[in-house]
Design a protein that fits this description.
This protein has 284 residues and is of the alpha+beta class. The chain contains 10 helices and 9 strands. It is globular and about 60 Å long. The N and C termini lie far apart (49 Å).
Length: 284
């Protein structure tokens, strides 16, 4: 039986509709901020999911981890763990990068005037103080790239304020140029784990076996359509549980995994933290 709107929350139907169209969503409380991390997941110690038996969204008693909690899975959105949040939600948020979008958030009349003079016209959504300009394509996010201008795409969330007007064009170089950073050097976490005593030659040193495992791990990260941080953590955990204790992993292997994660929007710091959390989880 369908639950009354006042029980489900007035924003839940919108969230489910967006999820059906491939837009990862999460509830926002008053003040345009996500519901806070639960006690079990404080400081992201769970890596995005406390039990880590299988990859996927966090399953603790509350929505966690901001943009990383965004999902298109209706079972997660409708789950009892999220019910209280939808009842109290002030708005629906979405992960633009997860939907293949970039939002240029223009927070003032001056910012809008600048955009009209410098950026290609695209789909526009009215906001409380300005406009969101939506482009097709994902990129790194950054705040305050200009006065009153934020870029929201990967590892960020934006409020859903309606579909907007006009067609969304392909992400132009003019927007990409707003977020200019020096290429981040890959810095795999240093992990020292002893080979099993008396085990002789490590069977995992077979090049084909190890290379196949790393390639599969890269593919798993690359194909993640949501919950990227949780997927990266789960993948690192799987690699370390198979190859971490015998000493067969090299910096070259971890660099490949870090590169795959960064291509999905993870920062070097997030990669290092996820790797370190996986090492800690396995007691290495």
């Amino acid at each position: 039986m369908t639950q009354p709107t006042e029980i489900r929350g007035e924003h839940l139907p919108t969230a489910l509709s967006l999820a059906t169209s491939g837009v990862p969503v999460l509830p926002l409380r008053a003040g345009k901020v996500p519901f806070g991390n639960c006690r079990s997941c404080a400081d992201n110690t769970c890596g995005g999911r406390p039990n880590m038996k299988t990859p996927g969204p966090c399953v603790c008693p509350a929505p966690c981890h901001g943009w990383a909690a965004a999902t298109t899975n209706p079972d997660v959105i409708n789950a009892p763990a999220w019910a209280w949040a939808w009842r109290k939600a002030a708005a629906v948020a979405y992960h633009p990068g997860g939907a293949g979008l970039t939002v240029v958030d223009l927070d003032s009349a001056e910012a809008i005037a600048w955009a009209r003079a410098n950026l290609p016209a695209t789909r526009t959504v009215r906001t409380t103080r300005g406009e969101h300009w939506l482009y097709q394509g994902a990129m790194p996010s950054a705040n305050a790239v200009r006065p009153g201008v934020d870029v929201k795409s990967t590892m960020a969330y934006a409020r859903w304020l309606g579909p907007g007007t006009g067609p969304a064009i392909a992400l132009p170089d003019a927007v990409r140029a707003l977020v200019v950073k020096e290429p981040a050097a890959l810095r795999p976490a240093a992990v020292t784990v002893p080979a099993p005593a008396g085990a002789g030659k490590c069977p995992h040193r077979t090049p084909v076996y190890l290379d196949r495992g790393i390639a599969m791990a890269e593919q798993r990260i690359t194909e993640a359509s949501g919950a990227v941080h949780a997927t990266v953590f789960a993948t690192f955990l799987a690699v370390l549980s198979t190859h971490g204790r015998c000493g067969c992993l090299t910096d070259a292997h971890t660099a490949r995994l870090f590169a795959a994660a960064q291509a999905k929007g993870e920062t070097p710091r997030h990669c290092t933290e996820a790797w370190g959390n996986a090492v800690h989880r396995l007691g290495m």
